[in-house]
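Exercise: predict the fold of this chain.
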Amino acid sequence: MFYFGVDYYPEHWPQERWVEDARLMAEANFNVVRLAEFAWSKMEPREDSFDFEWLDHAIEILSSHDIKIILGTPTASPPPWLMAKQEDLFRVDPEGRRLTYGNRREYCPNNPLYHDHTRRIVTAMAEHYRDHASIIGWQIDNEFGDRCYCTICRNAFQGWLRDRYGTLEELNSRWGTLFWSHVYTDWSEIPTPLKTGGSPNPGLALDFYRFASESYVAYQKLQIDLLREICPQHFITHNFMGFNYDQLDYFELARDLDFVAWDIYWRMQWNIDAEVSPSWPALGHDTMRGLKGKNFWVMEQQAGPGGWEMVSVPTKPGELRLWAYQSIAHGADAILFFRWRTALYGTEEYWHGVLDHHGRPGRRYEEIQRMGAELQQIGESIHGAQIKAPVAFLLSYDSRFAFQIQGNNPSFSYPEHFHDLYRVFHARQIPIDILSPTSELSSYPLVIAPALHIVKDEIAKNLETYVRNGGTLLLTLRTGVKDEANAVVDQPLPGLLADLCGVEVEEYVSLPTDLDHEIQFSVSGIPMTPFPAKVWCDVLQPKGATVLARYREDYFAGKPAITVNQVGEGKVVYMGTMGDASLYETLTAWLLDQLQIEASWAAHHELEIGERWQGDRKILFLLNHSDSVQQVSLDGKYRELLSGSVLAEPKLKIPPREVTILKEEGE
């Protein structure tokens, strides 16, 4: 079943309103609702005194309209009586300041007392609802994140390090603590990398970031284990925050879940003046799909203008439906909008829902209602359909954490660099999988690993196996610089991958923010016109590799900037600099031509064409992100799913901010 629904907070409204809400939800064709993830104080108003009567009543009303329920464990927002028990329940921020009550997710994820109360509320909820026919699954907490630097976490971190390194001698050696006389003689001496301590040892900082991520993985598993034991028939997920969130290793957080869900907001208070490129949400969807290699849910799909202190610009007619269908085009098997009705009080008074503050249906409701009717008609044709991607991008959270510690250049951003390469393939309508560097890669003709800064033996061996067996690998600047302990390797860069690349970095040049250089290709099929080289220049010395492009100026003029190396049946391309879209588009076109990877559709930045497959039948999502009519030439015979008509003309026009869904006709 394709689930289509909304996030609902009945506790915010008088009970006499609930019947009307359920009626309107049913008329919007919603069949699922998320409840209770911020209702701890309502369910446990006093310690060990539980009240589920109000929630039972809300569920009964929703169930009478055949609406299924996802329950959220409420641990993201604890009640005041709990947090008043002791000060160290509160998280400490990187500045060393202890949080106070007033927001959400203020808790320390390693606090034993918080764990005890977590077990109590989760167990009470699970036992109460274990046999309820309308409950289908659970969401753990809400949008995990934010590192804690408190004494409890420091002590736990020291124990984590003892387990990881075994001896202080090994830790001191790997971290290089002789520098600045930081040699540790007792585990209790090791600090957390507070900002008040200046620039921390890179090994200490990276290990703390790993530990902080694993703390949330462990805290999530505490809840998962309870639910698996009490409610084994229910699914369990968590609502992630896409590619852009960078405090957790999402591959690890996804491991114990049945599937990934995530919260997607195109336009919020934080980018109030900005129009978001469709490639950014697309990258988020592809990342979430790649975490477990399976389709995902959207637990919070934007339903209106966002806003806490500021109110973002409004959604235009058609955008909510368009954005939701983009989620589906990239692998979503369920869509829930956030939220049902805009709150009258609290921090999110201006985070608009399907209904405005007055609770009456309006333009946004009608648009979502239209989509609900469509999915009621075609949802089964879409649900479970797969995405077939010929290209994979490797996302390294170790490398991402390392660049948070040492950015290398003020103009370098790991996520921006990743996206700049991704958006070229997105514009060319080429499906992408986002994987970890240790994933199985043999099915992909082309793999791209942007700035793979930290490379351990397992990664190096995986990439070598992939290339020797016929794969093509694109690596970029600052690859292979660090070992697993975040220490610079004592060999020519790109370190463990130097032999695979057939090249050594003779020297590297960090460019001033206002200075660009140029490179020029010398390979057939690529124009001889100069391309910009920005931010960073790895000056390369071939050790078996062939030169594709050279620098044109400064003291390293004539030196190689981009190379290609044949290894076994495959190739490695090393790009030692950054550029603009023209450089990435040119190199991408050359790679695709070399590998004979043909996009089915013409490159376009405003018309997105997503493909999902039901068996051997292709489903197309034609998404017009622009304010003007777009045209596409079809590659075969298709049936328009909503109308059922077979398209007679090969050319199809898509109105502004509209969606057309087609299914390939058989022979």
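Check your answer against the key: The first helix runs from residue 15 to 27.
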